[in-house]
Amino acid sequence: MKHELPKLPYAYDALEPHIDARTMEIHHTKHHAIYVTKLNEALSGHPEIQNKPLEEMLRNIDSVPEDIRGAVRNHGGGHLNHSLFWKIMKSPVQNGGIMSHGKIGQLINQNFGDFQKFREEFNKTALGVFGSGWTWLVVDDAGKLSIISTPNQDSPFMKGLRPILGLDVWEHAYYLKYQNARPEYLKAWWNVVNWKEVENRFNK
Questions:
Q1: CA separation for the pair 107, 118 (Å, rounded)
Q2: How far is CA 48 from CA 1, 14, 38, 51, 159, in A?
Q3: Which domains does the chain have, with CATH numbers?
Q4: Dihedrals φ, ψ of 89, to 5°?
Q5: pTM for the model
Q6: What is the pLDDT of residues 47-90, one digit of tens each?
Q7: Residue whose C-alpha is closest to residue 155's, from 35, 44, 41
Q8: CA dist., res. 25 & res. 28, Å (int)
Q9: Which helix (H) or strand (E) segment is 134 a member of?
Q10: Which of 99, 133, 162, 163 qualifies as a cystine partner to 129, CB 3.0-4.6 A?
């Protein structure tokens, strides 16, 4: 079964003015699309694992055939990471970036002190990513939340952690609008976080 580029759950300009339409279009139709293409090319020579869920392959990356392990890690990770990224964003609303009530909000307060402290720690981690990578809010098997970063397109699943919120800090995610000003991109991104989807992912 071939992997496919997912449709966005909104129009390319839906995240304006925080994330511009041209960046979203290029990010989705070029960057994400190539991960899907390269992943399918790698898997085409290994029918024995083609029907395995991508999450399972990344959780057990050492069991993936050695000749395509790097491709599954990079392109499979890129495909899975971006598929989550699109869904945890939505059209901005008034008071964007303010944590909504719910179980995830309570757990953020318990784990980090309050939402503002959580946001500060998340931003610090994102700003500390050298080069290209991701920053994540993840949950472990015991239900504990933590903030981590991963390089390149590595997935938290490779660490046995389940991502519920992720921020792409590759320059292709923000360079057209923010150039090298990653802090400005971070500040804007909080306005489009879809906390309902984060909550749904935590409850899975």
A1: 11
A2: 11, 40, 18, 8, 24
A3: 21-87 (1.10.287.990), 103-203 (3.55.40.20)
A4: -125, 155
A5: 0.95
A6: 999 999 999 999 999 999 999 999 999 999 999 999 999 999 99
A7: 35
A8: 5
A9: strand 133-139
A10: 133
